[in-house]
Amino acid sequence: MTAPNPVIPTGKKPKWKKILGTGCLGVIALLVAGVLMANYYFKRAVVEHLERKMADAGFVGKVGEFDYSIARRELSVRDLHAVPSGTVLADLGEVSIAEGTIQFVPDGSKEIAEVKIRGVESAMGSANKISIHPGKSFSAKDVSLKNAKEFGGGNLLKITELQVEYGIKGLDLVKVKVAELTAVKNKKGQWNLLVKPVKELKFRDNKIERIGEFHLEVESVKVLDLSREGEARTMLVKKTIRARNINSAADFNSKILPALQVLLGEVKSQP
To answer: What is the pLDDT of residues 26-44, one digit of tens each?
Structure first.
């Protein structure tokens, strides 16, 4: 009987194993690539939805870096730039946002539950933090609004806190804490602050039916007279104006307007 030839290890895998291994690696690679592509296009779809939302708000926007968490249904964006598409918001100029987070509702739709924004800059001013719950509330911290160029273009308002809560027929709460208000008289003798009776209640150019509670705190006022030489003078006022149940323009004019006129009258009478 002839003895079987011994099998001598060669260190090489049979050809069919090589083919199978290569095939498995190829399938895995395709699966990974498919997941990455699906993830990218899904994120892109969310970003495009956000850009459409900006368009609905009157802006042509472009998102720079972004990331989306499916588990948290949260979109993070950085380096966002938007330009007003119409004349209503044209004075804002280009708006830039350092970073923001958009939280979508957990029911699987593309509706936005909350927006958090940091580092907002525009031609009209800036804000450190902004939080928006669509249809429910709007808040901001460390906000600066600028004067018009004819009044020097410096800060008009330094707001430490702004809070607005929406109600069924209007606003349940409007609360503003002002760290500094700058009153400016230009070279023509005109003041930047004019308080006139309102014809209708509005918030961000939208007509509202009522304001449940109005709360305004002013810590200090800076007075600058551009018609003569000299530095601006700052005075502490620590003035608080409160009013409830403002259901018409007439209510605003009777409950809030007189206190504002007194405050600005004191500012303008400073030597």
So the answer is: 343 443 333 334 444 445 6
